[in-house]
Amino acid sequence: MLFNSDNIEAIQLKSLLRITRAISRVRDLHSLITLLASETSKVLDVERSTVFLYSRKTDELWSYVAEGEMEEIRFNASHGIAGSVFRSQKTLILHDVAKDDRFNKTIDKTTGFITRNMITAPIINPSGDCIGVFQVINKWDDNFTDNDAEFLEIVSSETAVTIDNVRLLESRGRMFDGLIKALTVSIEARDPLTAGHSFDVTFLSGKIAEYMDIDSDTSEAIYYAALLHDYGKIAVPDSILKKPGTLSEDETLILRKHVQHTRIILSSIEFEGKLEKVPLFASQHHERVDGKGYPDGLKGNEISIGGRIIAVADVFEALTAKRHYREPYTMKKTLNLLISGIDTQFDREAVLSLRDYFIDIGKIKPEEVPVE
What is the pLDDT of residues 232-247, one digit of tens each? Predict the structure, then answer.
């Protein structure tokens, strides 16, 4: 595919617009860089594009995205044309690669590809650090221009900003996840007997959501809500939380208030976007579909999908685990209790999804947990 000089600038502008729109929508780094490589190949009319990123740990350049390559390419960051551009941080146009002593013929011999010409541009982030190189190979008309190099430099700059932004988001995501899990551990540390409850409820909630085909954004909100669903128990005295016998009426009222405490505490955290319903989901796991639950006595679909799912996972985990006041129930007994509570205490689809999960993994047989 060849482009003439009359339309090349318009084509490049449209390509950059597509790239910019994609960057605003997509948060998966590999998908974004693959798009950048694909658009660049089309606009510059080349056979393939490769984005090499730098590994500080090994002092290597490695092919993060390599069109047409099945295997990852790795080499020392001081070797080859890519290594030269990485070290110099200057764009290089080569019309006849075979005549350049820096050309690493090993890669072509290994892959069976024949490299004729190329442009290699450094990928320099806003801090001024070179984090890789962007390479376009084999222009079909054998005539790379300074305009081509300028376009590649623009795309390389977008690539650098994209990588920095996505890595920052990923870092913040890991930090957020770590903080949430630290909060979960802090509340569970109060009672060694129930330690692990929130993590088990989170796992089961995830399986129920998966079997119910819940969308990924809602599932992520359910994940964090399940981790934090009992955080309000931080306000419940140990004398109640760890009491081995039956709670008095007043003690029961105090324990039930942990749901309101959960809602208040989590509402003070700025859960944004897809996670904005975390406080709502977490605070509704003691509601019942017949309206006899707490704290708000909600019925049926008035209860959020997250609240309905966590309620089932919470009761299952609690009944199958040892507590101060009783021994654990068997899986069969617990699932049958959940099934008997369908459409009164529990959401039907959530219970049946949990049942189906345990049947699928061979933990129980269908005839042991029949559904009328």
Answer: 999 999 899 888 888 9
Domain extent for 334: 189-368
Using DSSP bridges, classify how beta strands 130-139 and 92-94 pair: parallel, antiparallel or unpaired: unpaired
Query: pLDDT digit string (tens) for 155-199?
Result: 898 889 888 888 888 888 889 999 999 999 988 888 777 788 999
Please check whether residue 180 lies inside any domain of the structure.
no
Give 298's contacts (C-beta < 8 A, 6+ positions apart).
284, 287, 291
pTM score > 0.70 for this model?
Answer: yes
Q: Which residue in 243, 73, 54 sits closest to 159, CA to CA?
A: 54
Do 199 and 335 sit in the same domain of this protein?
Answer: yes
**One domain for residues 218 and 91:** no
Q: How is residue 192 annotated by DSSP?
A: G
DSSP 97: G
Task: Identify the band that residue 18 occupies on the pLDDT scale cut at 50, 70 and 90.
Answer: low
Give mean pLDDT, residues 111-115.
Answer: 79
Burial of 148 (C-beta count, 10 Å sphere; 0-12/13-18/19+): buried
100 φ/ψ angles, rounded to the nearest 5 degrees: -95, 125
Tracing tokens 């909630």 back to the chain, one arrives at 205
- Count of beta carbons in the 10 Å neighbourhood of residue 74: 13
Q: What is the DSSP letter of 269?
A: S
